[in-house]
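Hi Y.,

Following your request, here is the sequence exactly as I used it, all 564 residues.
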Amino acid sequence: MLRRIVLIGATGFFGQRLAWRLSMIEGVELTLTSRSEERAKALTQKLEGGARCTPFAFDRNDPSSMARLRSLSPWLVIDASGPFQFANYDLARAAVGFGAHWIDLADARDYLLNFGTALDALARSRGVAARAGASSTPALSMAVVEDLTAGWQRVDSIDIAIMPGGGGDVGEAVIRAILSYCGTPVAVFEEGRQRKIAGWSRVRRTRIERLGTRYLSPVETADAELMQRRFNVRSRVSFSAGLQSRIEQFGLIALAQLRQRGVILKIESLAPLLAKARRITRLFSTDRGGMTVTCAGMDANGRQIRARWLLIAGKGAGPDVPVLPAVALTRSLLLGGETTGAKIAGLPLAAIEAEMSPPSLTTSRTIQHAGPGCLVASACGSSSYSRLPSAVRAFHDQDAPPVWTGKADIEATTSLAGRLVRAFAGLPGPARDVDVTVTVDRCGGEEIWQRNFAENRFTSRLRHERGNIVSERFGPFDILLGLSAESCNVRMPVVGWRIGPVKLPLFLAPTSDTREFEGDDGRFHFDVRIGLPLVGLLAHYRGWLEPAKKNAAEPNLDEMSISA
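Below is the corresponding structure, written out as tokens. Let me know if you'd prefer a different format.
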């Protein structure tokens, strides 16, 4: 018996790709909808001459269209229309109400987080499955993290990046969805807590094999909330996008800044103009894109581990990726593998990867384990390290918590030269009893430290080089520190510096009088004095840290029916 599947938005950017894949599944009778019946007919003829596909004119805002949809008695309704940033649950509620299974490709945060609450009771009463988010996020991203971290004792961080090729078509609806959160608050999980930042407001550089250099900016997803609770992430969940065209990437960053400053209010109205502009920018791009998911934490044996999943999409196959979870989920439904009720789509990664067609879509995994000791123990020697106070070792040990919080006092130069250098380096200004958060990403003998003094952040990357020498990178500079572990202290004087392989004169090097110790209160304490020849003291910050407590204000996600 044929099962009728109605595909909403079949003639759209993603809908056409999904329609082609669904038409290849045995036992399916496919109804393709569009607001234009002529477009639906053209797609039907293009797919397979109309043998098992039929066109259907449909407007979700027209009550008569809804009545006609019901008359089809669909077994499954799939919504690929979007953008879901502006969608409600009316169509999903109607489809479930007349006994059809439901799948959508939603990636909008608010839509996803409230989906289960809105539809679960109805879906259970009608004996059908309703699944939201069967797309790159959250279905694929959650499946990858589930696969990479299977058996781990702890997940510290999850970093996800989507890097589409710039040579393909992008629908106006997709551009409108991106603009909807450009410069507006989006939810992130970082420094061990939920917070808000502006979409497309930051940029960081990365280099991916076979993709080259991309610049990544934060985008709106539900992953921060979903993954933090699902995997009990300790430090960070990030989701970024890196467009191949730097004009497009930095153009969005500029628009985000203008929206934040109130210069442009109705930014979504620019979607038609930007869609036309892409006709030019796409000429200088390729059809190669990709996606990375990087997880760090502790494996089943208690060792620091970093695992990365890489997807490379060539030959214009990148836009296929968002529809693959919906295809895999359809197969699961056909086999009776889904329970009734409404929740966010959850699938094994293998089921989604099975829908990928090499060589257009290929995936790989990279696993990196840390060495036997932490960075400070490697530099100072295990015997000296073992004699350090417990509070100091608790901060540096391989199994140390990744996020620490406390208080600090800061002294800083008031000279013009000193203020300029301090601003360039990102060092904090003078303050008393300020909140401080230190986040440490550890793996493979390398540590990335982010220090946050009352929302003033600066980051450095530390690596053990040889003997007691540790390099700490600030931007293009590598500062060489000679670590020593005394009976109660760790000290880190500067013994050299360089740019790349070029050594710089030591008499011009920054100076550092750094001491870590256990205070009378039993906490980890730090005392850092940084100076520069001819300038003098840049900053002197001292204070204490302790492992961050779980954020008491975390949202309750229990009713979201998160599953994988």
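The two ends are 30 Å apart (CA to CA).

Thanks again,
Q.
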